[in-house]
């Protein structure tokens, strides 16, 4: 993912940014880490805790987190001796917006089924790698 993050002034994601984001998410551990971070918004998780929950060696997890960060999907912040990672929900929104920006050729009523079900953000059954 050597490409720099460039977002249009109007808030629209460029094709290369979307490709970078999808490439970052196209690996199982990175996808699991991103989904884990989404479940732990807004507080985030320490890098070591992410590695522990996903049963991935710390150095391997660091490499995966770096890929997600370069794609703009996560952000990190030092808190004491830990680095806390959080999902970048704004970037995820841009990615989803990119996918549906041309939806239904100007007939948004056809795209109604793309809206999230009411319970999509509610409690779900425990997922693989989330031991919280």
How are the elements arranged and paired?
Blueprint: H1 15-25, H2 28-39, E1 45-46, H3 47-54, H4 58-70, E2 74-79, E3 82-87, H5 89-100
Antiparallel strand pairs: 1-3, 2-3
Q: Summary?
A:
With 132 residues, the chain is of the alpha+beta class. The chain has helices at residues 15-25, 28-39, 47-54, 58-70, 89-100, and strands at residues 45-46, 74-79, 82-87. It is built from 5 helices and 3 strands.
How would you describe what is shown here?
The chain has helices at 15-25, 28-39, 47-54, 58-70, 89-100; strands at residues 45-46, 74-79, 82-87. By secondary structure, it is α+β, with helices and mostly antiparallel strands. The protein has a single domain, classed as Arc Repressor Mutant, subunit A (Orthogonal Bundle), CATH 1.10.10. A three-stranded antiparallel beta sheet has the order 1-3-2. A hairpin with a 2-residue loop joins strand 2 (74-79) and strand 3. The protein is elongated, with a radius of gyration of 16 Å.
């Amino acid at each position: 993912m050597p490409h720099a993050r460039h977002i249009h002034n109007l808030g629209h994601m460029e094709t290369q940014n979307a490709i970078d984001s999808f490439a970052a998410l196209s690996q199982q551990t990175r996808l699991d880490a991103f989904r884990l971070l989404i479940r732990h918004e807004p507080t985030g998780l320490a890098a070591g805790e992410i590695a522990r929950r996903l049963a991935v060696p710390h150095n391997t997890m660091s490499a995966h987190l770096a890929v997600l960060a370069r794609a703009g999907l996560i952000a990190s912040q030092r808190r004491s001796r830990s680095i806390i990672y959080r999902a970048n929900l704004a970037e995820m929104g841009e990615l989803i917006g990119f996918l549906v920006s041309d939806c239904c050729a100007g007939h948004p009523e056809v795209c109604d089924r793309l809206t999230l079900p009411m319970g999509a953000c509610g409690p779900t059954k425990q997922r693989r790698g989330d031991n919280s």
